[in-house]
Structure formats: structure tokens, C-alpha cells
# Entry
Amino acid sequence: MSAMAILVDLFAGRRDAAALAPREWDGVIGVARAEAMLATLAHRLAEVDVPEPVALLLADQRRAAEVATGQALWEAEMARRALAPERIEFVLLKGTAYAAAGLSCAAGRQIGDLDILVGKHDLARTENALLKAGWEWVKSDPYDDAYYRAHMHELPPLIHGGRDRMIDVHHTILPRTHRKTPDPLAMLADAVPAPDGFAVLCPTDMACHCAAHLLADGDLQGGLRNLWDFHCLASDFAVADPGFWGKLDGRADQHGLRSEVRRAARLARDLLGTLLPSGWDAHDPTDRWFHRRLLARDDWGRSSDFLLQQAFYIRSHWLRMPPAMLARHLWTKWHKRR
Amino acid sequence: MRHGTRIAVGPVQFRVGSDWAKPIAALDRLYADYPQHEDRPADATVRLFAARPWRRWLRPSVHIGGDYVVPDALPLPLSMGLLAAEMGMNLQVALGWRRHLLLHASAVAKNGRAVIMSGASGSGKSTLAALLGEGGWRLMGDEFTLIAPASGEAFAFPRAVSLKNQAIAELAGRVDPARLGPLLAGTPKGDIRHLIPRADAIETMHEPVRPALLLFPRFGGEAAVVPMGEGEAFVRLTEASTNYIALGEAGFGALTRLVRTVPAFAIAYPDSASGIALVEDLWAEAAR
# Structure
């Protein structure tokens, strides 16, 4: 059994961690690191009796993740202090949002950049306020910069000189040129307060964004983490609100993300054991390509299945922009590389 | 991967995989007398690999990978596979280890107390530690010293010492040739030859010691000793630590305690003999 298969079995609770062989642990620890999920696994197995060296390593990971989460929330606070005087309202997205809202997927979750959503009308003011508060441009390349501004769903990334942390300022959740065009105004309007005064997306939007991020934006590299997010979000929201799945359907339709949300739910069910209501419990033969892609890693932590990776890479660009534009973009990028 | 081995250095269990047999055989020779725990899962993974299948044979070049990688790191020729393995192991510790505050520093110990020597490469910290480790000292490591945040104790990381350039001749004359690795000439870091630590250093590698003296050596110039304030020692050690920021408050606590409780000195020395004499003098004072 491959280490990736064991890893998802551990997350799904289908396998007893106490019964793993030493060489199986090698692989599991390696692939969990590669998927940036070792600390998440450490939380999942916090109550399980594992060999002592593993228990020590997992305890290290939990402690380190706690520090990292605190640092990520501090970065959100820094953004608020920069934007509040300008009366710019923003909504936290992804990892920082999960942590601010105290959601179960936040336990041990690695948080990279700070992602925020602002109204498109506030974009220029947000940029100025952040620049004034010490953030700087990362991309020096004029083509990349122009590309971001013209076609992307976020500003070119900014980095804070003193703290060395990046912020991604989104005005919607998928690139402007994407085939799918979710409704960011509805997301902003229905955002909900989190503790400490931050705003986060409402439960259905959070699940929609998570599914869109996993399946519509990118090549599924490191997608297992996003799938785990979806599993935790949907499972927790469904416990808190028995009508959640029905509302999610309606909201996904509104954003044009029905197929992404449905597929995310099926993949989470298949790999992580998410309980789906009747009506969601269908099977789609194309899902198996996604299963394979999500598990495409060997026991040494290396990406495997090169052709499948390439196929998903091409798919991600295909979704992201119309063909003529894609051709122009690749042409420019190719010229610049030479 | 085709070839592999397992190595435990201090608290870190590595698994090293390789597309070639040679670097693994070289590692196995250097680490033959280190304790082996077949049942212990690996904390860290190192991979030595060919970027393209044919580069396994055709002008073979070794890329360094693992749990953590440095983007754009240049590969090394297969003849330097041992150096690639060493760099891969260092990288995993530097970027992945969270149990202790990591100091890029060498250390030696005596009677349960340690001298920690921090400096850039070329400062002579490895050479001083290696020479002291051949005398009346226990070598703790030439690359990393680990500080436990809770207790403030120092833990050893006694990997095979990486002797460079002149240090090779200096040590080669003093030790059993069986304790030396192959000469790696003309690497990006100069000539390199590994020294297997003495058996006592390996046997006691899990024993914690109390830091007693902090030194910031500089090779070259007149012999000099300059006492260093807590503030400067603190700032220098934050720069010498690869996980200070990641540890957050625990790292801050460990480092402030270290610089407040342990006397620190910058030392300059023209040659190894005077360097060692300086260390012994300062030790005699600190140990009083």
C-alpha cells in the first residue's frame, strides 16, 4: 500500500496508526511533509498511541503549527491596522480565515500568505494603504505586473519588508478570465463576523471558495490539503446546520460552481470519508483521474505520474483563460525565458 | 529510490535515498559506528537524484532533494556525492527541525558543560572543535548545536566533521587514517575531507550538557579576546539560528536565557594552536 494511500486512510480514520510498521511511518511522514500536512496529521493523531519517536515528532509539529498560526493571525491584525484608518472592510480567506474562525481544519494547517478579499471599488485604496504601511511589490517584471492587474483575481503579491510576509489582495476568487465567474459582491455582502473582530465568508461561501480553489484554480498540486479543508468545513457546517447541504447547492448555483462543489464533495467522500446526504451521493467516472492526481506521490515524497500532472497543468490554464489569450500568454512567457 | 541508508545523528533520524550506490556506500562507511535503530521511523528524508534518467550515467550529476529543497541549488558531480549527502542532511535539519533552537555553531564539552562556538564558514569553528575533540574534550558537533527551549540544555549533533582546506592536513596528521573519509578535491567549498568523531563523542551523543561559554571565533590576525555584551551575542545568535523565528516565543526565551547566563567573547587567533590556547584559558576562567 502506498504511503499516500495510508495517509488518506489515517485522515479518514480507516486505519489504526498504532498498527503501522516502522517503514510505513517513513513514507507517511515523508508524504505528509510533502503535502504540507504533517502538523495536520499530528492533530488528527493526537490521541493515538504511536511509537515514541513519532509521538515526539508530531508533538514538535503541533507546537510549531501553533506558533505559525499565531504569526498568521498577527499578520491579519497588521492588515487590519493598515486598512482600518481608511475605512476599508476586508474579509479573510483560506487558512487565516479558518484560524480566525476557529474551524477544525485550522488545527495544524499550514498558512502561507495572508489572503484577503476586498470590494473591487476599494482595490486601489487598499493597495495604497498597504504600500503606505510598509508592504512592497514583489514582482518587478512589468509583464507579470500588467498581467495580474488586467486578468487576475488579485493584486500582484505584496510583501512586508519588516516581517517578510506576503499578502494577496483578492477582489474575487477566480481569475477574471476564468470560465467560471463567481459573485464576489454576494460573498462580501454575506460575510460573517469571526472572533477578534475579523470577517470571514459565510459557511456556504467558504465551502464554495474551497472547492473552487481546489478544482478550478490550479493543477491540484498539494490539493489534498484543500480537500481536507473541504471535508472539515462541510462536515462541521452540516452538524451545526442540518440544512447546510441544501443551502450549499443553492449558493454554488449562484456562483456557477455547482460542478466544482459537487465534485469536491464526492472526492472528499471517496478519499476522506465525508458523509454526504442523499442526492449528493452520485458517482462520476471522471473522478478517478482526480483521485489519481491527488495521490500522485511516491513513498519518498516525490511527485509521480508525470503525464497526469502535465494534463492537470494544461487543464488549469485551459480553465483560466480563453485559447487565444492562452496562446499569447504562453508565447510571451516563452520569449521571456529565452 | 534505488539505494538507501538510515543514519541517526543526535536526535535526528535520517533516511537517505540515492539514484547511485556510491554516495550511500560512502555514507555507510562514515557512519558505520553510529547507533542503528532499524525500528525507528525517519524524522527527515534526503534524496540524491539525477534530474534526467540518463544523467545517472552520462556526466552523472547529483541533485539534492528531500523534505526541504533549495530552489535553484546547483547539482554536484557524482564524485562529490558525499558532500551532496552532507548538504542534504544539513538542509533538512536547518529548515525542518523544531524540537530545539538550532544554532549554526560547533560545540565541545567537558564535565557536563559546553563551549559553543558560532561563526561564519571560514571562522575556524569546525577546526577548533575538531582539534579540541581530539584532546580532552567531547566533540558535540561542528555544524549545529541544539538548545532545548524548556531546559536551556545543549544537545549534540556529532555528524562526521567536514574538514576543509588547511584543516585537512592539520587533523590528518593526528588521527587514525581509518577515521578519515575520501578527499573531495575542488568542491564549491574547497577541498573537503570528513573526520569520523571519536567513539566517546558518538556514545555520549544523547547526553545533554549545560552551556558554559559562548565564543565567536575569527581566524586570522593577532590573538585577541573581546568580551561581548548580552545584546550583541543575542543578535549574532539570532542570525546564526535557522529556526529562531519559527520557534516564536520559545526561541526568544531559550536565546535570552542563553546569553544572560553564559559569558560570551569574540576571539581572534592567527593559528590553531593559539586558538586552542585561548579557548582553554577562557574555559579555565569560566569553569571557576
Observations:
- The mean pLDDT of chain B is 95.
- The first helix of chain B runs from residue 21 to 30.
- Chain B has two domains: 3-96, 101-286.
- The CA atoms of residues 19 and 53 of chain B lie 9 Å apart.
